[in-house]
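For practice. Supply one:
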Amino acid sequence: MSLAARRATAADAPALLQMSRDFHVEDGAPLDAAAEATIAHVAAGEPLAPAYMLEYGPDLAGFFILTLGYSVENGGMDGFIDDLYLLPAWRGQGLGRAAVTLAMQAARAAGIRALLLEVEADNSRAYELYRKMGFTDTRRRLLRQMMD
């Protein structure tokens, strides 16, 4: 058996929402009401944020969401692994690497020229995995301004 990814559908919204909640609580940034509403929208097929359910055989193992953008610096369409989550039962088995590989394949299929992700500063395990998979540290700071 191997890890597989399939596009999420509206029927996946409850599972996607619960995993998103769990992921963001683990990260220390629980989802607010607006973010929760966005998850249902993403599961229904938002073209700028395709969501993928990760399955290991018949079992749900996690999810990832790509967000699409455009960058002059990156030569065209770029993407962001906005969220990538494995259920706790599936961690420590090499599936994280497989999940990132599936996200990279989905990004290539979408025509993305540069794929970005962020990792919490204290998550050295994930940081090292991403570095080993070819991601480079941009040495830039990610800043945010919420636009009301």
Observations:
- The helical segments are 13-26, 33-43, 95-109, 124-132.
- The chain has one domain: 3-132.
- The first helix runs from residue 13 to 26.
- The beta strands are 3-7, 51-56, 59-71, 76-86, 114-117.
